[in-house]
Fold:
Amino acid sequence: MLGNPAAPVTMVVFSDFQCPFCRGLATTLRDLVQSNPNVNLVFAHRPLPMHPDADAAALIAAAAHRQGKFWAVHDLWMEMGGAVTRDRMLAASKEAGVDPGQFGVDLQDPALSHEVEHQKRVADAVNADGTPTSFVNGEALSGNQPAGRFLAAIERATQNYERARLSGLRGEALRLAAWTAGSADAGPKLLRYLRQGVHVPATAATAERVAAPVANDERVAAPAKAPAVVATADLEVWKVPVDPKRDAVLGDSKNAVVTWVIFSDIECPYCQRLHQVALDLVAQSGGLLRLVWKHMPLPFHGRAQPAHLAALAAGRQGAFWPYIQRCFAIAEDDDAPRIDEAALVKHAQALNLDLARFARDRANKALLKQVQADMALAKRLGVEGTPTSFLNGRLVKGAQNVGLLQAQIAALAHDPAARPGHAAYNAQIARGRVSPAPTR
Structure:
C-alpha cells in the first residue's frame, strides 16, 4: 500500500509488469496519491498469460515486498525503457537493495506463488480481465485513463463516503456502505480482500486454478478433493474471548486499540512465518497493537502438543515468547521448527530456566487443560487450520500478505470509533458470532 492506510478513498490497481499501459498509468496513480492525503493506492498482481515473463516479474516484486522493497522495485520498473523482462526485474531488485540470500529463498517459497494466484482470482471475481484495471472505492476504470478521470472518480468516492458518514455509520460499516455505493458487486469483494484477505468466489475462468490451490494454511484433515473457494460474511465480528491473566499477551492491554488473536501450531511452518511478521508489526505499532496466542496443535503434528506444553511451562517462568521464538528458529540444515525432546530441554537451558520446575510444570494437567480449552474455542468458532487469526474479532485465514495485514491493522487502529483497552475489545466482540453457520 502507498499512502495513508486510513484514507477514506482507496485505489486498487490490477497490473502486469510487462504491460506498457500499466507502466504508463503508474506515474499518474503515484502522483494522485502523493498530492492527496485522503487517497491511498494498493497494487494487485494480474500477470496476463500472453506475457511470458509476467508471472516471474510478479514473483520478483512480491519477494522484494517481503523486504519492504516493493515500491523501490516498482519505481525502477516505471523508469525502464523498452521491454520488461525477468532479468531486468531481477536487476531492479538488486538495485533496490534486497538481501540476495533471503530474496533467493523467498522466490522458491510456494506461498509467494499462492499470493499472486490469489490476486488473480480476486481480479477474475471483479471482472478485471485486462490490465490495467483500477477501482476507486469499488468503482472500475479500465485502461490507462487520464488523471482527470481518476480525480472525478475520487470525488464521487469521497461524496459516497461523506453521505455514509453523515447517515451515522462508522468504522467498517461506513467503509462497506461507501464501497457498495461505488459498486454493489466489486466494492464488497475488494473491501473483503483488503480487510480480511478472504478468498472471494471464483468464476468459471479460474475454476481450473481453484481446483488445485497452493495451500497457505494447514488443515485438520486433507480433503480428497480440494474445496471450492468461498467467501465468508462481510467484515463479520466473532466473539473471541481474551483473558490477559491466562493467555499469553504481547503488547499493552491497557492501551492497545487492535487485538490480534492467532490460533497457532508450533509445528506448522506457516505459523512460524506469520509469527515473525506479528512480532514485527507489534513492535512497529507504537502500542496500538497487542498479540494474543491461542494454542492449536494439530493432531497430525506429533511433536506439537509437547512443544505447546513446554512453552506454557516456560511461560510460568516469564519466558513464553522467547521460548516460542527459539522453537520457531530454523536450523541451517532443516526447514522445520526445532521441537524434538532434546531441543525442548535445550531451549529451556538457553533461557536459564529452572529445569526442575520446567519439568514439573510440563507434566501439570492444568497446562494440558489450557491447551484443550483453546482447541475447544477454535472448534466452536469453526477454525480448522493454522494459522487462523482474528483482528478485533474479524477473521483472517492463513499467513497473509504483510501489506494487507498492515492495511487491516491501520484501518482498525485509526477508525474514529476505536477505543483503547481490554474493556473496549470486550465491548466490540460482546455481540459477535460464537459459532459458524450450520452446513446444509
